[in-house]
Amino acid sequence: MFAIRKYCLFKVLIIGLLSLGFSTIAFAKDHDPLKVAFVYVGPTGDAGWTYAHDEARKYMESKLGKQVKTTYVENVAEGADAERVITELARAGNKLIFTTSFGYMNPTLKVAKKFPDVKFEHASGYKRSKNVGTYFDRVYQGRYLTGMVAGLMTKTDLLGYVGSFPIPEVIRGINAFTLGARAVNPTAEVKVVWVSSWYDPGKESEAANTMINMGVDVVTQHTDSPGPINAAEKKGVYAIGYHSDMSVYGPKAHLTATQHNWGPLYAAKAKSVLDGSWKSEDVWGGLSDNALDLAPYNKAVPKHVRAVVDHAKSLIAQGKLHPFAGPINNQSGKQMVPAGKAMTDGEMLGMKWYVEGVQGKLPK
Amino acid sequence: MDIDFIANILFATIRMGTPLLIVAIGELVCEKSGVLNLGQEGMMLMGAVVGFMIAFHTDSLFIGFIGAVTAGALMALLFAIVTMHFYANQVATGLALTILGVGLSGFMGRSYVGEALASADFQIPLLSSIPFFGKVLFSHDLLVYISIGLAVAVYWFFKSTRAGLVVKAVGESPESAQSLGLSVLKVRYLAIVFGGAMAGLAGGYLSLIDTPLWAENMTAGRGWIALALVVFASWRVERAVFGAYLFGFMSIMHLVLQSFGLSVSSNLLATLPYVATVVVLVLLSRNQQRIKLFAPMSLGKSFHGAH
Lengths: 364, 307
Prior knowledge:
The complex is a heterodimer. Chain A is of the alpha/beta class. Chain A is built from 11 helices and 14 strands. Chain B is 72% helix and 0% strand.
């Protein structure tokens, strides 16, 4: 009996203390920083996708200083676990939550319904609601430029692409890379090998090896591990990375990479929440928004190549060059985009065919 | 299709098959002694991460490999203690070992993600310049030859040594073995630890030689494949070796066929290694009598004899 009473007293004390805490929080609301949370699918040190998001988080902190306070949770599995984590973050008082993987789409929407005063930003998704916005970067612009680098550096005119799964996002990258390469080297062709995985270093590197054995001398990838870079380094050919600068895995091979640059977008989103102008929208940021960039060039990339690519980069950023501007033929030579026209965002998002210059058939 | 191309495929086959071969041989010895250890994946990952960490700091692949083997062996020792002294269920303990290995390796390797090793190449000087055979047989990493040597040694061990007979006896009927004065626990300890050491070695092969980097879960299920290989090979060394290389060959063909422009779904092709290996090995071992002859009778059962 005594023990129970003591316990009750203890509870009252805690509740009292807590409410005291809450009231002080409420009192100091105007001066409190905006709490921003991030949900990551991998470890922050993956040298790829998650790493890029975490760099952006740090960028936001450095830009907005004491106005924001950030937290992150890494290695969150897509699905039910994600819903739990996002709920916890919303409950902990975060007012802006970035969920940075495609599989978080439905959990984000579900949690957002329960927390109408919290803003959510979901990367790479297509479903939005009143308090859920989506964003992605125009990776294809970087693919086009790295395709130019590859087209100018190849001696065999045969380029290799390690693919994960034949979905529009990946096909768009392959096509942009091919168009970029053929813009500077009309005889260049691209071989594609699918590894049916986003992440298997051994298999990715073996896929690169297979293509290198068939005469490919520049390899690039739409998978997440540095396996292909590693394979290229061992075989003495070139490689182009993705997600972030992967040159540490192939100091001689790594020519450049398409890098995400989420920082400016994240800072802008936080600012809009701070000044109350945030609205749910779909942002597809490109070079003009500084949403992506190329990694530093390798020493092996000569000046004239850099000049050509940098020029194209500034044209794309100014909106004067569109990677998917016609005329574009498909593999059988049929014109898909007429001269003078460019593909719309909708057409690019649903791309399910290869452009001329890609070898092999697109798997169904 | 020229001869160089075939040489390249065979070369890659051996490289893809080697980690499977190493794990399968280790698990085969372990199972022959009557112990089923499902923790291969966990032991491999621990071997991979510890090997990488040590090689990264010492700049020595050799010391890295010693670390990898030790890590695998220690994990196996844990399994041995739990299953043989506390009589824990082998299947449950093995699964727990895998979960532990996946988590612990991810935790330990956290700050090593994104680091690279200088990749070392090892080639046999004169022999590797022989056309075709030089490329296929003599230009691999040292570990490939060690793995073949180990397979031959294990084959010989079971075929013609007394110690091999002892291991088999313990796996068939530990009670009878004990009544003959053999130490069941000692034999099983050695077999389990050997299995763990091999899994660690295979993990090291992945993180130090095959793709010299550490990434969480980089074994990508190879431990499970090796486990299945042992069963489908009906516990015979030569078939496990054959199965490992067959799997490697089919994995390569998945990639090679695509680069030829074959218009079959890549997802379907990706199942090729699994389907082909299972079908071939099952056909090889379809004789029930023969399977019984080679399968350890007391596999997976705890031994409650006196210590």
